[in-house]
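An instance as discussed:

___
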Amino acid sequence: MAGAYKTIIKAVEKFLQDTGSLGPHRSKSTKEVVNDLREKIAAGELDVDVVDGTMINYISEAANKDENSGIVTGGPYTGYWYDLTEKVPPAPEPVDEHKIVQEQGTPVTIVERDLYPLMELWLQKKGYIAKDMSNLRGGGRWGNPDIIGADIVQLMGVIEVDLASCEVKITDINWEQIIFEAISHKRFSNRSWFCYRVNAKDTPLPKGIEYYAERYRVGVVQICLEDAELIQLKNKSKEPLDYLDRVIERIQALYDPVPLKEKRDVIERTGVTITLAF
């Protein structure tokens, strides 16, 4: 699908540009776009084998969902045109961080990424192949979890892909808002956890978080590390394995079936293969 989609969309973008369809007043109808694609396929200019319905689906996908596509539409009956506006990636949101003041030496700034190796190992303990995927492009708002885990089960020719995700935070401050990042990942993850760091193992859960976890079927994990231990993890004087038992699943992430279609985009972007390699 990915190769045919890219070929079709690239051809449509070129057609719209070559014909000056650069705004709503110079748009091309679905029929005009599809006819051009048919002609190119018949002439051997496009090496794809797709029916009209598939072409229309691809074009609609590009115009309505694909942030990397220049194809746009104003809605029903308005046709398609090419947007010449330069695609500038959105500025990254401020990274949550925690500054630790030491008795001796300069302050140390801890960021979420310092916890990722530990959470990768935690997901591996649960049987997943795990990897930091926070830098993936695309996927839209809240479309890229910090850590993705994958497990593939094969039985009698049937393949099932079990995806898990972790959203990792330095603190539980404003958890009522940021937990929705973990919740949003349920659209493609079978299990999703909201993970945050606390100073001690006996730290109580924030009031109300159990309702959110139950209502939206996400797990809650506390990463119990003191400031000195955070520094050791950051400067690699300690390994993630040294602190694996400090990762405590306070609320289990419940399994929910997810259609493969919903998983497809994240699977393709992360590069998960049948051999479970990233």
